[in-house]
């Protein structure tokens, strides 16, 4: 199959699959990650087809919306790519990226490494920080009916994968448990540069949030 047709088919599939998705993990999230991945890939020696497919399919069935089932996303992606008669080596790489892209509390060692994973992971993490990251975080917190903030509930750092997945902490805690950690976990030079500005914006937001919470301004 022509590469252009494969990407078009994948976009169509993802849009259909995520038509009813929570808005922080919908098609527009995928599109932003896809665009970020293409930007980063310009400066890296990589297989662009793998990058494109992995970026498009990385959240095709996020485990947190499927009772914690971490196999459903990779399995859904694999079935789709097989239906498109994609080369098995490319399928294997895409599936492994999907299996290893998630933050999962930051204490889980990846079982797979590649420049394509680095690119797509950086692109995904960029969408978790900055103005978009803030919006997505509070959107998901509202989706889960979580408190905005409770000064009596401190963030829990260095959580295990299980504790991270089960957390029901206030939304603001997520900044310290994940978002503010991502800048220093970027892999690519382009990703690192893009993360600096977004990280700084989150710091400004938190400063303003606490000032308003304490009625200082």
Total strands: 0
- Report the portion of residues in β strands: under 5%
The rough form would be described as globular
Q: Which stretches are low in confidence, meaning pLDDT under 50 for 5 or more residues running?
A: none
**Helix and strand pattern:** HHHHHHHHHH
Question: What does it look like?
Answer:
The protein is mainly α and 217 residues long. The protein contains 10 helices and no strands. Helix 2 packs antiparallel against helix 3 (48-57), helix 2 (27-41) crosses helix 6 and helix 3 packs across helix 6.
Task: Give the structure's gist in a few sentences.
The chain has 217 residues and is mostly helical. 59% of the residues lie in helices and 0% in strands.
Core attributes:
217 residues; mainly alpha; 10 helices
Strand-helix topology:
Elements: H1 3-17, H2 27-41, H3 48-57, H4 72-83, H5 88-100, H6 115-126, H7 130-143, H8 161-166, H9 173-177, H10 189-213
Helix pairs in contact: 1-3, 2-3, 2-6, 3-5, 3-6, 4-5, 5-6, 6-10
């Amino acid at each position: 199959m022509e590469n252009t047709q494969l990407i078009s088919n994948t976009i169509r599939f993802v849009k259909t699959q995520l038509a009813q998705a929570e808005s922080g993990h919908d098609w527009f999230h995928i599109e932003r990650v896809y665009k970020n991945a293409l930007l980063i890939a310009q400066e890296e020696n990589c297989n662009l087809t793998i990058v494109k497919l992995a970026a498009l399919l990385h959240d095709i069935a996020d485990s947190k919306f499927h009772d914690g089932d971490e196999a459903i996303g990779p399995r859904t992606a694999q079935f789709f790519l097989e239906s498109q008669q994609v080369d098995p080596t490319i399928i294997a790489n895409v599936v492994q990226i999907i299996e290893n892209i998630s933050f999962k509390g930051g204490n889980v060692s990846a079982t797979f490494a590649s420049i394509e994973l680095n690119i797509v992971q950086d692109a995904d993490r960029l969408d978790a920080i900055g103005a978009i990251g803030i919006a997505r975080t509070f959107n998901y917190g509202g989706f889960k009916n979580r408190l905005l903030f409770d000064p009596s509930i401190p963030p829990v750092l260095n959580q295990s994968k299980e504790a991270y997945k089960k957390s029901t902490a206030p939304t603001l805690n997520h900044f310290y448990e994940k978002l503010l950690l991502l800048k220093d976990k970027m892999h690519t030079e382009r990703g690192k540069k893009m993360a600096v500005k977004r990280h700084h914006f989150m710091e400004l937001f938190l400063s303003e949030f606490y000032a308003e919470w304490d009625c200082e301004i």
